[in-house]
Amino acid sequence: MLVAFLTSITTLPALLDLLNPPGENDPVGYAFLAPVDEFLEKHRVVIIVGTLLVAVAGLPLLYFMKFDFNPINLRNKSAESIATFLDLRKDPNTGANAINVMTNSEADAKKIEAKLEKVPEVLRVMSIDSFVPDNQPAKLKLIAQAGKVVGPALNPDSVDAAPSDGENVESLKSAVESLRKTAADATSAGAVAARRLADALSKLGESNQATRDKAQNVFVTPLRIVLDQLRNTLQAQPVSLKNLPVELVDGWKTKDGLMRIEALPKGDPNDNDNLRRFADAVLVAEPNAIGGPVSILKSGDTVVKAFVHAGIWALVVISLLLWLALRRVTDVLLTLVPLLVAGAVTLEICVLIGLPLNFANIVALPLLLGIGVAFKIYYVTAWRSGRTNLLQTSLTRAIFFSALTTATAFGSLWLSSHPGTASMGKLLALSLVTTLAAVLLFQPALMGKPRDIGE
Question: Domain map of the chain by residue range?
Answer without folding.
Answer: 27-71+297-447, 72-132+241-296
